[in-house]
Amino acid sequence: MISPILITGASQRLGLAMADSLLEEGYTVVVTYRTLRPTISTLKDKGAIVLHADFSTETGIDRAIDDIKAVSESYRAIIHNASDWAQEKDHDNKHDLFNRMMNVHALAPYRINLALSQSLSMQGGFSDIIHMTDYVQDTGSEKHIAYAASKAALQNLTLSFAKKLAPKVKVNSIAPALLMFNEGDDDAYKEKALKKSLLETVPGAEEAVKAMHYLLNSEYITGQTLHLNGGRNLK
Ligand SMILES: NC(=O)C1=CN([C@@H]2O[C@H](COP(=O)(O)OP(=O)(O)OC[C@H]3O[C@@H](n4cnc5c(N)ncnc54)[C@H](OP(=O)(O)O)[C@@H]3O)[C@@H](O)[C@H]2O)C=CC1
Ligand SMILES: Nc1nc2c(c(=O)[nH]1)N=C([C@H](O)[C@@H](O)CO)CN2
């Protein structure tokens, strides 16, 4: 088997778009999903290897690592995309919320990167780790406090793993702001959200797909962050 690319949380939206694009380009793709959706069957029909994984607990992370390692002894890349965009107002138990945010966004990527570090370095050429972080890693978020803190932790993991795994493995972040709306976002929210960036647009998943391919094909980028935010930081 050609060394696969692993994408976590690929049953919808950005992860699904990235997995589809990699399959179209002929890569071997391994995806994880938490909820079994028709999209997972479609990815499997296209040749992807699909694994169930829930990263909210240490047991779930342990199981996922065992399953991922059982698929292949070597990996071309890992894209840590799985994410739970949780708000404090929706969760009474803040202790559990904070632990879940850190498990999904920081502990899982940390444990998986350490467990697969040898698998990544077995490549003839470069291998890659891509962390899907978030614009709020640098700003915080008053409504997604634990989420933002966990994405900041993931961003710091990019710097540490870039140092630890060089020169064979490149490690970078993609930090989106608003790339896609969610079902249920009303017109008032959409109008307000669009105004947050200079470019006042919501580009869709393809913007993340292009950034992913740019990093995978780079020979001189590591420890960096691709900010996909329409100039929001200058507004
Ligand atoms: N979309 C955007 O505009 C932005 C996205 N980002 C980041 O980009 C990445 C992709 O965004 P987007 O596609 O919107 O993400 P989604 O909100 O669609 O989440 C991606 C996947 O993560 C999975 N997931 C959630 N919780 C868990 C868990 N406990 N264990 C395992 N998997 C889990 C879900 O799986 P399932 O559906 O199978 O349950 C989901 O399909 C994320 O890391 C996100 O934080 C950052 C800023 C903006
Ligand atoms: N896991 C997710 N993380 C984030 C999402 C999402 O839909 N799923 N969406 C956003 C917003 O687009 C935000 O950037 C708008 O300002 C952030 N993170």
Automatic annotation (TrEMBL):
The gene is folM. NCBIfam families: PRK06483.1. Keywords: NADP, One-carbon metabolism, Oxidoreductase. It is an enzyme of class 1 (oxidoreductase). Catalyzes the reduction of dihydromonapterin to tetrahydromonapterin. Also has lower activity with dihydrofolate. Its EC number is 1.5.1.3, 1.5.1.50. InterPro entries: NAD(P)-bd_dom_sf (IPR036291), Sc_DH/Rdtase_CS (IPR020904), SDR_fam (IPR002347). GO terms for molecular function: dihydrofolate reductase activity. This is Dihydromonapterin reductase. GO terms for biological process: one-carbon metabolic process. The lineage of its organism: Bacteria, Pseudomonadati, Pseudomonadota, Gammaproteobacteria, Alteromonadales. It catalyses: (6S)-5,6,7,8-tetrahydrofolate + NADP(+) = 7,8-dihydrofolate + NADPH + H(+); 7,8-dihydromonapterin + NADPH + H(+) = 5,6,7,8-tetrahydromonapterin + NADP(+). The keyword Phosphoprotein does not apply. It comes from the Bacteria. Pfam families: adh_short_C2. Belongs to the short-chain dehydrogenases/reductases (SDR) family. FolM subfamily.
